[in-house]
């Protein structure tokens, strides 16, 4: 009777130990998946920031060219639109610079 009880206790101990190991292993996988999602999100935001910065630079240069053409051909409409486009490009660049600063502070909070 003692051998059967001892064997039964050993088997139950292995089952419980295996279950605990399985669940702790699965919880680790969840953390890795969460970290990957966070890294992917940061990468996507950096790509968007880069695209917005390029767009702002293009808007500035296009606005300057429109102003030159408006001045050259005495077209007040093109001159006005060029100024607006250039100012909008400057706004995008300024907003992107502010956003980059807040991203750096967020990275410090998250420990990245």
Describe the structure.
This protein is mostly helical and 112 residues long. Helix content is 95%, strand content 0%. It has helices at residues 2-72, 76-110. α1 (2-72) runs antiparallel to α2. The chain is rod-shaped.
What does the secondary structure layout of this molecule look like, with pairings?
Layout: H1 2-72, H2 76-110
Helix pairs in contact: 1-2
Concise structural overview:
The protein is mostly helical and 112 residues long. It is built from two helices and no strands.
What multimeric state do the chains show? single chain
Structural class: mainly alpha
Kindly estimate the percentage of residues that lie in beta strands according to DSSP. Answer: under 5%
Low-confidence stretches: none
* Average pLDDT: 80
The largest β sheet comes out as: none
**Spatial separation of the terminal alpha carbons:** 59 Å
Helix content: over 70%
Overall outline: rod-shaped
Number of helices: 2
Give the topology string: H per helix, E per strand.
HH
Rg over CA atoms, rounded to whole Å, is 30 Å
How many strand elements? 0
Structural features:
rod-shaped, mainly alpha, 95% helix, 0% strand, 112 residues
